[in-house]
Amino acid sequence: MAHTLPPLPYEKDALAPHLSAETFEYHYGKHHQAYVTNLNNLIPGTEFETAALEDIVKKASGGIYNNAAQIWNHTFFWSCMKPNGGGAPTGALADAINAKWGSFDAFKEAFTKSAVGNFGSGWTWLVKKADGSVDIVNTGPAGTPLTTADKALLTIDVWEHAYYIDYRNARPKFVEVFLTSLANWDFAAENFA
């Protein structure tokens, strides 16, 4: 089964001025597409030839895993942002965040510290643990909660290609803008439920 590049949940210019259409042309149109193309070239003749993407991520290793996980991570990441995003979560997710960190501001500080300190290329995730609590987890280049007992709620891509066009090497500024102006807390709350 051939995998395809999933459509974005908004137009390429919908997150401007925080993320430019040019960023999406490269990050979505070239990087994300390359993972799809690579996976489709790697799976013929393997046990993953007809497997669903999530099954590949959970069972594969090496290049097949790396490309499949990056497809899943990026597709998830696009939904973690929305036009006029940011603000703060409400309801059960807000309660879980407050229970873990004491306040949303303390969560933002912990998330920012984790994302800025995630060495090299990778992802910083807000996850739901098996016991229903929440936590912040850093993963490396193709790491994903799909391979753990954690459930992904929200993520930020901290590979430089995610922000370099708009923010150059200012990862802290990108993380700040993600939390204040882009984060899709409705999506995170749906995942939490």
UniProtKB/TrEMBL annotation:
Keywords: Metal-binding, Oxidoreductase. SUPFAM superfamilies: Fe,Mn superoxide dismutase (SOD), C-terminal domain, Fe,Mn superoxide dismutase (SOD), N-terminal domain. Its EC number is 1.15.1.1. Gene3D superfamilies: Fe,Mn superoxide dismutase (SOD) domain (1.10.287.990), Iron/manganese superoxide dismutase, C-terminal domain (3.55.40.20). Coiled coil: none annotated. Residues 89-190 form the Manganese/iron superoxide dismutase C-terminal domain. Residues 3-82 form the Manganese/iron superoxide dismutase N-terminal domain. It comes from the Bacteria. It is an enzyme of class 1 (oxidoreductase). PROSITE patterns: SOD_MN (PS00088). PANTHER family: SUPEROXIDE DISMUTASE (PTHR42769), SUPEROXIDE DISMUTASE [FE] 2, CHLOROPLASTIC (PTHR42769:SF3). Destroys radicals which are normally produced within the cells and which are toxic to biological systems. This is Superoxide dismutase. It comes from Uliginosibacterium sediminicola. The lineage of its organism: Bacteria, Pseudomonadati, Pseudomonadota, Betaproteobacteria, Rhodocyclales.
